[in-house]
Amino acid sequence: MINPDRKNKNFFEHFKILTRLNRLYNQQQFRTFIFIRMDRLLNALPYIALAIGAWAILGGVLHDIFVLKEGRPYDRDLLRLMMDGHILITCGAIQMLTYSKLQAGDEWGFYIAIAATISLIVYCFLIFPFLKSFATIFMNGGFLALLLIGLFKK
User: Fold this and answer.
1) What is the pLDDT of residues 84-107, one digit of tens each?
2) What are the angstrom distances between the C-alpha of 44 and each of 50, 118, 145?
3) Separation between Cα atoms, residue 129 and residue 107, nearest integer Å
């Protein structure tokens, strides 16, 4: 049986914590801290594009190497598996090529990077029953969020 006094005590402890967090958020210093961090992330957006694009290219090249290493006969299955690696390579290369446009703040760089990132996320969800690539999904999801924030802040 639950002790009603303990239940109320936990409620009041949580209420105190929420009240403190609310006061902290309402302070100007805290909001300034969050915006400074976001500006730093948005300034690093071109480098994040390089890193995530390199991750996709590396994954695609390794995928193709391991598919070819198995010594499969040339057929539809081999071509399908090779296309999986080439999707990663192409989207990663597009993300890396947007580096200079993102650095210049050009809107087209954002649009192209968003298209390549959405393509990679859709691809990851299509192969999810076979390969659960959480790292690629989370990296590209975060990158997509930063791209959208950066695009709307311009």
Assistant:
1) 899 999 999 999 999 999 999 889
2) 10, 20, 14
3) 35
